[in-house]
Design goal:
Blueprint: E1 5-6, E2 9-10, H1 11-24, E3 42-49, E4 55-61, E5 78-83, E6 88-91, E7 99-102, E8 116-123, E9 126-133, E10 140-148, E11 158-165, E12 174-181, E13 184-185, E14 193-196, H2 213-216, E15 230-238, H3 240-253, E16 271-272, E17 280-287, E18 289-295, E19 301-302
Parallel strand pairs: 3-17, 10-19
Antiparallel strand pairs: 1-2, 3-4, 4-7, 5-6, 5-8, 8-9, 9-16, 10-11, 12-13, 12-14, 12-15, 15-18
Length: 306
């Protein structure tokens, strides 16, 4: 067999991963298919980082477009992640709710910058895999606030946040920006913010420069922040295919109005080893993370630019 590399992993490596999955699990569950809505698909929500603590991969099964119920958990799967050095991390569904968790040993952290990671899933007789790479991420230098009115017609004021970071020079970088207000993430639904070299895709050359202002101020809720709020900003490194995935996902989530396009599945990086087998949806990615957390208090408030 010709050992052709697949994104840095050899075909033999992928096959060995499949054999490992087969050895770890031999159970299969029956699939009840509703022919009126089409077959259910495996949905993967797996984003692993270099931050301390457990890492999770959530597996569900898709439902009909008009089904308002919560998607059912994908139970009984075998889930592992291997790095280029063949170090295997096994993810276990301890609670039986479709959330598969890898728990580190004391002092152990998942992920190293520059490494590629291979996800393997065995579920209902099918074997799926995906590949991602953990890239570098710049440091967040500061996070400041200015007092503003969320609505010019109202007297009420709030505080608009702005973070400062500089794009890594001499390379093309893709980032995902996330913000938290008092521990709750702001972009879990529609406001997905991604960046190309600290700017927007196709804009001016910003390699090695300060992130542009629309990206720096993308961390604000519509109502702005209140005094004494705790605000956390994260910049995550992502791959080009993840950048495209988030762009398409945002388009689908915000797809409405008179000229809305027909809904469609967002392209995935998860592949079924059996080309004629059922497809999967979702995405698997790994990220290095840079973060900063501050409170909206005098030391972090700057004069208004009015």
């Amino acid at each position: 067999m010709k050992n052709t590399p697949i994104f840095g992993f050899s075909v033999i490596h992928v096959i060995l991963l499949g054999l490992l999955l087969l050895g770890l699990s031999s159970c299969e569950d029956p699939i009840d298919i509703d022919l009126q809505t089409g077959p259910s698909q495996l949905a993967i929500d797996g984003w692993l980082t270099d931050q301390p603590g457990p890492q999770t991969i959530k597996l569900t099964k898709t439902t009909g477009y008009f089904d308002a119920a919560q998607p059912p958990a994908a139970l009984g799967a075998t889930v592992i992640v291997a790095d280029e050095d063949s170090v295997i991390h096994e993810f276990i569904d301890v609670k039986g709710n479709g959330t598969y968790v890898w728990t580190p040993k004391p002092g152990e952290v998942f992920g190293k910058i520059g490494k590629r990671y291979l996800l393997g899933i065995r579920f209902e007789g099918q074997e799926y895999y995906a590949i991602s790479q953990m890239n570098s991420v710049p440091t967040i230098d500061s996070l400041v606030f200015r007092e503003e009115k969320p609505n010019p017609l109202e007297d009420r004021k709030g505080f608009a946040g702005e973070f400062y970071a500089t794009d890594l020079p001499n390379q093309t970088d893709y980032y995902w920006i996330r913000a938290y207000r008092n521990g709750k993430r702001l972009d879990e639904t529609s406001d997905i913010v991604v960046s190309y070299n600290g700017s927007f895709n196709g804009s001016a050359d910003t390699d090695g420069l300060l992130f542009i202002q629309p990206i720096r101020t993308s961390i604000n809720p519509d109502s702005l922040y209140n005094r004494n709020d705790s605000v956390k900003v994260e910049v995550l490194s992502i791959t080009p295919d993840a950048f495209y995935f988030f762009q398409q996902l945002s388009t689908q989530i915000n797809n409405g109005g008179l000229f809305a396009s027909p809904p469609a599945n967002v392209p995935t990086n998860v592949v079924n080893r059996n080309a004629s087998g059922p497809k999967a949806v979702g995405f698997f990615g790994v990220s290095a993370v840079s973060s900063k957390t501050v409170k909206v208090e005098e030391v972090n408030i700057r004069p208004s630019e009015d």
